[in-house]
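Course assignment 3, question 2. Fill in each field.
Student: A.L.
Task: Predict the tertiary structure for the chain below.
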Amino acid sequence: MAISVILSDGEGRNGSVKVLKKDDMVAGIAVYTSPIKDFVHTKIKATHPTYGTQIARDARFSGTPDVIHNGTDTVAWTGSNLSGTNFVFDSTTVAQAGTKSISATATVNNNEALLTRGSALTVASYVGITGYVYTTSWGVNSNIQIFARLAGVVVSSTVNLSNYIIGTSYGTWQKFAIPFSALAFTSSTFDQLVIRTIGSGGSTPDYYLDTLQVEESAGASIYSITPQRGHILSLDTLTIAMVDAYDTTLASNSVSKISYNKFLNLSALTTGIQVVIYSKGDVLESDLFKHHLDIVSYPNCTYNIGADATNAYIVYTIKFPHPIELDARVGDKVEITISENLSDLLSLEITGSGGEVDPQTLVEI
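Answer field:
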């Protein structure tokens, strides 16, 4: 039976509620209140603080790099096993350059390699870390993590290499470029780099590393799609628009002359256009686009093309199956990173669109 209870709310008003035993409850739909979100449709272009919205530029590294490790082909930083004994620092199985590389094919979850420099490097004098990875096995839970230390103390955030490579592209050397902004250094210097194998449930990756180096200048430009300060963007569409001097004369009456392994007239990229989506304060997904087929293979992607007598454009439209919430209050955003020469394109811009709302205007009903 129902039990009547009188509650005092402390504000001089009498109220009453009924507390029901579970056995007295009847089946029904649970109803709760939710704020009304008054979204306004918004388009936000990926923007760089220096270069604006134009991504078609040369973002290659320059200057004199500091060689970290190349399989001992030359004298560089000293490699050792920090956790486990399974990293081999002079493997001759495969090599991106020279005859040797670092082998991690026998490593297991949480095995770590330590690369140590004879003296510390100044963070402000360099801009990023590049290298090559060659995978032969990669599972659902596989990853390779990289972070920096100073005299044994961690001085950077941990970067997942899966944000910069395609782990399942077996049997080929993939170049990656990690800007220092991604490492978020907490010290002005560092002298060690740690490489950690991640894998569980039988999905530990098998891989090799080669030609690792710290880059001195330029390169790795990061463009961001960010909601207004304090706002939430419900991202539902990503548009990639590029223009190039290109002849799109029909290959037949119905098929446009678009090469699967190019972007219009631009040859396939090496490191690619990296797109990372941060949602709810964490990485939701990461994608690499190196040529036309990479983008059109993305689910729910469509494209259209057009041309005049000289130039052609192509616009890719990616519709997400469900809107992705980007909350500026926790640093959510879409980051687009390039680290090679895209200046052969006449134009490249990326736009995110969806509903945007100021949480302070939410109405509870």
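Instructor remarks: Residues 11-16 have pLDDT under 50 and may be disordered. The radius of gyration is 26 Å.
Grade: pending
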